[in-house]
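Risk register update: the risk that structure generation would not scale has been downgraded. Supporting records follow, first protein first.
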Amino acid sequence: MKSGAMVKAGQVLIELNAAPQIAQLAQLKAAAGLAQQNYQRDLAQLKVQAISQAAVDTDAANLKSAQAQVAAQQAIIAQKTIRAPFSGRLGIRQVDLGQYVGPGTALVNLQKLDPMYLDFTLPQAQIDLIKVGEPITAHINARPGKTFTGKIAAIEPQVDTATRTLKVRARFANQNGELLPGLFATARVDNGGVRQYITLPNSAVAYNPYGSTVFIVKEAGKGKDGKPALTVQQRFITTGLTRGDQVAVISGLQAGETVVTAGQLKLHNNAPVFVNNSVQPANNPNPEVKDE
């Protein structure tokens, strides 16, 4: 066995010293051969009524016992040979030639690199967005600039009650061996086509136990200066997925409506307001932390 070598299923990796067991096997085979001869001899004697049936039955039992001991010894000898349970690549050998190996000693690590499996979790609210067989892409920090494509292989049929997430397993072809077990990966599932959403900055939404609300700016006639007078109305909305600083609005808001993005704690229904867009709220779908 050579460290880092590719091995096939069934290939011998390590052989332990089985000389004492092999010598004992020869003894057991000799005893089994004698028991076979005694049984055949007494069986012939039984046909001419020269021996009792009980003696033949005893010989048959002795023969089966001897054969069972031979099979048991052969199984012990087979356990002295460690074979690869599947094809893959060996790691660094943990034992040396002639070293005593006790029960539970780690011998060598064997990994099957093609295919590779990626396990990740999905929030329970997004269960309907993923199905077995759908394509998935992954990015590995150790392989910058490369995108690996695979498919969803299995989905856990039970939600974790502690985290309310669902475990998903994806399968990736890895013929070149670029993927290694234990690497951290970022998975991305592209579900369906392009969808249009009305989005708001997170700062515009007030999240309350009884529901999410926003303040809508409305015209309320003319002011003393002749310009439109503006007031606000509180409205419940249903929010959806979030991305960065943005949150999608499923219902409760129409395109083109003006929404208050700051100072909601000071507002109430029909409160007069004026628009000041000199300060814009964070509204980046992919915010990044700046190193300063």
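Supporting record for the second protein:
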Amino acid sequence: MFLDQTYLFTPGPTPIPNRVNAAMAQPMIGHRSPDFSELIEDVATRLKPIFGTKHPVYALTSSGTSALEAAVVNTVAEGEHAVVIVAGSFGDRLATIAENYGVNVHRLNIEWGKSCSPDELEDFLKNLSGIPVKAVFATFNETSTGVLNPVGALGETVKRLTDALFIVDGVSCIGGVPVDMEADHIDLLVTSSQKALMLPPGLAFVAFSDDGLKAIKSCPAKRFYLDLNRYVKAYNEQKSTPFTPAVSLIAGAREVCAMIEEEGWENVISRHNLLKDMIRAGIRELGLPLLTSDKDASPTVTAVQPDSVAAPDIQKALKADFSITIAGGQKKLKGKIFRIGHMGYCTPFDVLKVLSALELTLVKFGQEPRLGTAVRKAEEVWIQHV
């Protein structure tokens, strides 16, 4: 066994293409130079279709959580009211961030493993009638459960019933799912680099609507590094960033944009849906229960809830025997599920690899051999797209 051959199937970080690594290894340029101005403008422009926006996409040198914090602190002040849809660990994190800033948070709690329906949100908002809700926060793709929320329908509900901003955490799906900020009524959309965008951790990206920009400019909340006004001003006036950026990562982001353009954006979306369908078909063939329904399933991460072998044991065996790294459960799902990431630099062949390893691993734990069955089922899905 060549132990240096490792395989990463977590929902972040994700594998990095060789050509992106090569782009990040180029000689350093000054972050206040014309070269960097050209670089940041190129990236901010080429990310537009991925975010479904007509405005530049701004880069922050920080984690995805910082982007969530920026989404809060730039739009909702202490004492104001916000609704947060909590359908998993990251919805909970978003609510906690807002609570820590003194926001009056109204949590719409959804069963973990299910999406939030527009009807549930409508009923919740109607029950808050008379309360001046400043913003509604939603998680586009709940990483902890493998659920994709119907963001467009939720945004329509928000705008029909309230004057609130609609703010979306797109950390684990932007770069792998279609989005149209205007049609989906999104005022602020954030993501990070280490998921579907095929980069190392260290960058966060933010896009906003005209109304979102107005809210950012008028929000009285105190902030400094995460003050998005600074990023807008630096970009508009100097094609730069207000603070020292991760230059190499941004160079990598330009190469990611090139790869997406070469594949074609619609093909990128189709590939992620194919990976989802393949992994779910294979998992079902192995008799392993899936946490989510097909309707709610994420194109970028799949959660599995085994009932005969402990999820952490499967996770450990895949790592020890095949150098395959998958993710476990979080918070109330810790020890109960394992999660397979299939986003960004991931192909149908990669899905066959992890399914083959799962077939062998289940035999190791005394399960009836189903060798080749999951792979065959996934291939049957794939052949329909070839």
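The first helix runs from residue 18 to 24. On this basis the risk owner (M.S.) recommends closing the item.
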